[in-house]
Amino acid sequence: TESAQWKSRLEKAHPNAPQLQQLTRSQALGQLPQSGIEQARRQAQSGDVKGSIATWDELFKGSEPPIELAPEYYLTMSGDKDLYNKAVSELSKLAKQNPNNSAVGIAYGQVLTYRKPTRRQGLKQLEPYAQQSKTASDSLRQALLWLEPKESDERYYQRWALAHPQDKAVLDHY
Questions:
Q1: What is the pTM of this model?
Q2: DSSP letters along 108-131, please?
C-alpha cells in the first residue's frame, strides 16, 4: 500500500520520470513465473540464445525487461550476432540512466569486450568494478588476454599486475 502511494505521488509530480518506468518494470518482476526465468537461463547456458531470448520476450510480454533482469537479458542477447548491436545499445542506455547500478555497468563492459573494436572501451568500463566484483575482475582479465596489446595499453596491464601480482599470464601476454 505504501509503495503504491509513493508511486502515485511520483506519477503526479514527475509523470515522465524514467524511475517511474523502472518502478513499474520492477513491480512486474514479482509477477513473472520463476519456471519461465529458469527455462530462459537453462536455454542460455546450453547455448540456445535464440530460444532463451524468445522465452524472455514471452515473459516480458513485449515490454522492456525489469532492471533486475536487464543485464542478464542483454548479455544473453549479445550472444546472437544479429542482436549484438541492440544489446550494446540497450546496455549503454541503461548504464547512462542507472550510473549506480553495478550489474548494468558490468554487463555493459562485458559486451563491449566481446568485439575487437570496442574491447578497450570495455576495459575502461570494467576497471572501476573489478575490485568489488569477481565477475568484473574475471571479465577484465579475459579481455586483457583477448586484446592485441599496443604500447598505449600498458596502463591496463600495469594496473592489473598491481592488483594481481601472482597472475603472470596477463603481464606476459602484454
A1: 0.82
A2: HHHHHHTSGGGHHHHHHHHGGGTT
